[in-house]
Structure prediction request, 398 residues.
Amino acid sequence: MKISIGSPDGLGDFVLRMPLVEALLSAGHRVQLVARPLAADLARDLFPVAEVLVLEHDPFRAETKKLRKPFQREIVEIRRFAPDLYVAGAFQLNFFDEIFLGERLAQLRVAGFEAEEDFWPSDTSADPRELARYFDVRVRVPSAMPEGEKMLRLAAGVLGVDKLEMIAPRLPTGASLAAARMLLAEHGIDERGFVVVCAGSRPGLVMKDWGEANWGELLGRIGQHESRAFVFLGNPKESASIERLRAALPTDAKHLSLAGNPPPTPVSYALVSLAAAYLGRDSGVMHLAAAGDVPVLAMFSGGHWPRFLPQAQRGIVVTRKACCRGCNFFCPFPEPWCVTSVPPAVVEDAWRRLPQVSSLEVVELAPDEPWLGLCARTDATAYARESLVATRADVARM
Prediction:
């Protein structure tokens, strides 16, 4: 069977879908992957037998939703591939899914998720339940189920089996590893002699970001005793923030920022897999570290809690418990206190314990004042629903 898989969101999302791709390829199916550029680069490297279709436009940008007939080239390419099944791989349906399902091929079967709850957020102008009526294979899951488990449920539904065990993601290829080792050698950094850090701030990250001041304090504390280099990875838009963090470090170790000129995605994956540990926020780099069996220490907000926990064998996730979890990043407060209010001392303690951890541990701090009172009076689900309805209305007027 020929199967097209939609994966038009971020790099971390694609990493969590890698077991789904692996399961379908291992069952003998031909696969076409529809992805944005960073994920597409990694897909080509790890799944050379798959056909990779790169999206020309980001379906999550408002500018894309203003286009008269977006994704027509991509739809033509999917028709050329002539799949028997299209898998809407994202739990939260997106604008690409909406356009494709509206113009789908005749007789094409579709597989996808349906939320168990009444409230099912999506990045579409239409209600996702209206789009789900196209699904021939419908996998019903709770919103809060971790994405890795969702992918196994979806793969089992597509393959017509009751259950699948977790499939380990593919490790970096030899060529990518060689390039990563050469990069480290150029900067005098030893394999396993560095920590990958993903901590820069930029617009668009506010709802997930612990804050530059918190990161600066933590890295300063750790850096006083850490002999290993910090290698910063991130988006070029985070480069200025990362450079401030790097410049303030208290030691002369060979700390390196690659955010201004990031290596190709397969090389980044290989680089992360050669690290001693990952330290940073919930990010695509974090998911690469988990896939490469590198211990992770990650800061999490509650916007999608706990859907995007890393599929890590060893790690610690730190967050603050909140009654408004699941807000879908429509935060009703001045800032996301579920992450920004975590004290650096708590994260420093987690860092000290990370080498002894043998599973994924979640550190949840109790809510504190004055947030506790505000949170108790706030219905975050209702706030998120109203915000999403308003957003859809804005899209409809475009």
Q: What stands out?
A: Residues 20 and 151 are 6 Å apart (CA to CA).
